[in-house]
Specification:
Length: 510
């Protein structure tokens, strides 16, 4: 049904209060006489005020601005040699899906064309339960130690005193975090501002595991490849559109679907055996690194098509709750510390943002209603009737046998360590490849101009110099180019000869 049809169909409804009593006149507060006070007995009016007061729920602490749609995820290729997932095991299997795309740092009313990573989330409702993909449009992230996440986000949002965005906070954090520079290179390159949500790819970033019935597994990275191709905006275009139409991306997605142009993405996987992972140049649990496509080619699994706009944005997009911990059998998380942290963080924020029974909301409810021991709490409208809320010998639940055992998986033995990020020369290799091999001359020029424009707004010379030094470690031409454009002196390029030097660099600046 189109939105116009939905709108027309509303006309037939009889107007009522929240308890279903017909109300003759919506705009008629009850008053004692012509000039007297209002009457407390006016349930309709008081209920209306009270409900309005509670209309807003907390916006997402990150990724607050977004838009989404529904559609279908279809398994197109056989990967039964990789996983025992029933859903993925049969070509032609289809599941209803809901996708949400977003920017990260801005509030829910902020501009869609901000230079920022884009969120790329998909909820796939399979017979085996919900499978959520909570991905970004970039294959890497700013950190590999999750303890940094909340403070990192603070520096990308607003200054506690001025409530303004601060280039000093932004670059102060990043220049102390050279491992972030792979993502920084992408962010300030052309891909930093995608043209809407339809023309961008999505990446799990994290390594997962695909598991077979015998318990054997391969490591996996997932990719959504846009069938619309990719398109981006320059800095100038993005600023202009932000002023003219801050909701550009939401409008583009909604109107394309209304026109019947249904965007789609191929869902693909890169895999690596545990033996290959041992020999791999980078740590596969390091979210700041990619796996080369040449060495680990993409293999297609399925296709996501978005063909249906939400009828109600709040119920179907604002209230949707994605979590990396919502996985199906045959797909497991790896030990990537950032992923492990996220497994906890998302359901936790949903309990706060939407309430403890967020999984019962229609958009979040799995196809098979859960049968377990969870009960009660606010808004428990599917409270499992008379089913015992403990393991009863009289009315036992049916338990399915485990599909595989993990006994052959990685064994983790070691001392407790708390220094997850030691920056070494390895961290500069992949950003350097972007500069040397991926960017052409015009892209390099735009990159320099984008960084110089942003970094110039920082007031602290120390922060500017340190940022230039880290860019110099990626490539001396980058720091020289930015310094020239900003009209500041170019610091001696920072070239760590050893891991020890890098640690010393970090200790020095902290
Ligand atoms: C949203 C935490 C890293 C992708 C969120 C939300 C939280 C959060 C609390 C709000 C969720 C909600 O209110 O529903 C974290 C933490 C991270 C982390 C603690 C690291 C320790 C990442 C990474 C990615 C990512 C690495 C991508 C690879 C997303 C996306 C959303 C989101 C796409 C929006 C989900 C939606 O559309 O509802 N994150 N995040 N996050 N995050 Fe993260």
């Amino acid at each position: 049904m189109t939105s116009q049809e939905v709108f027309k169909s509303r006309d037939g409804a009889v107007f009522t209060d929240s308890q279903g009593h017909p109300v003759q006149e919506p705009y008629a507060a009850q008053r004692a006489g012509q000039n007297g006070p209002l009457l407390l007995q006016d349930f309709f009016h008081i209920d209306q005020l009270a409900h309005f007061d509670r209309e807003r729920i907390p916006e997402r602490v990150v990724h607050a601005k977004g838009g989404g749609a529904h559609g279908v995820f279809e398994v197109t290729d056989d990967i039964s040699d990789l996983t025992c997932s029933e859903f993925l095991g049969k070509v032609g299997n289809k599941a209803r899906a809901t996708a949400r795309f977003s920017t990260v740092g801005g509030e829910s009313g902020s501009a869609d064309t901000a230079r920022d990573p884009r969120g790329f989330s998909v909820k796939i409702r399979t017979e085996e339960g919900n499978w959520d993909h909570v991905y970004n449009n970039t294959p890497v992230f700013f950190l590999r130690d999750p303890s940094r996440f909340s403070t990192f986000i603070h520096t990308q949002k607003r200054d506690p005193q001025t409530h303004l965005k601060s280039a000093d906070m932004f670059w102060d954090y990043l220049s102390q975090s050279p491992e972030a520079f792979h993502q920084v290179m992408i962010l300030f390159g052309d891909r930093g501002v995608p043209d809407g949500y339809r023309k961008m790819h999505g990446y799990s970033g994290h390594t997962h595991k695909l598991v077979k019935a015998d318990g054997s597994f391969v490591y996996a990275q997932f990719h959504y490849i846009s069938n619309q191709g990719t398109a981006t905006f320059t800095q100038e275009e993005s600023v202009k559109i932000a002023g003219e139409n801050p909701d550009y991306a939401n409008q583009d997605l909604f109107e394309a679907i209304e026109r019947g142009e249904h965007p789609s993405w191929d869902f693909c996987v890169q895999t690596m055996t545990p033996e290959q992972a041992e020999k791999f140049r980078y740590n596969i649990l390091d979210l700041t690194k990619i796996w080369s496509h040449k060495e680990f080619p993409l293999r297609k699994i399925g296709k996501l098509t978005l063909n249906e706009n939400p009828k109600n944005y709040f119920a179907e997009i604002e209230q949707v709750a994605f979590a990396p911990s919502h996985l199906i059998h045959g797909v497991e998380p790896s030990a990537d510390p950032v992923l492990q942290s996220r497994l906890f963080s998302y359901p936790d924020t949903h309990r706060y943002r939407l309430g403890v029974n967020y999984a019962q909301l229609p958009v979040n409810a799995p196809l098979n209603p859960p049968a377990n021991f969870q009960r009660d709490g606010a808004m428990a409208f599917n409270n499992q009737g008379f089913r015992p809320n403990y393991q009863s010998s009289i009315l036992p639940l049916n338990y399915k046998p485990a599909k595989y055992d993990f006994s052959k998986h990685e064994k983790f033995v070691g001392e407790c360590v708390n220094q997850l990020t030691v920056v070494t020369e390895l961290d500069f290799e992949q950003p350097r490849q972007l500069w040397e091999k991926v960017f052409d001359d015009a892209q390099r020029k735009r990159f320099i101009s984008n960084v110089a424009g942003h970094l110039s707004a920082a007031k602290s010379d120390e922060i500017k110099q340190r940022t230039l030094a880290v860019f110099g470690a990626v490539h001396p031409d980058i720091s020289a180019g930015i310094a020239k454009e900003m009209g500041v002196s170019n610091p001696a390029p920072f070239q760590p000869a050893s891991a020890d030097q890098m640690i010393a660099f970090r200790a020095n600046i902290q």
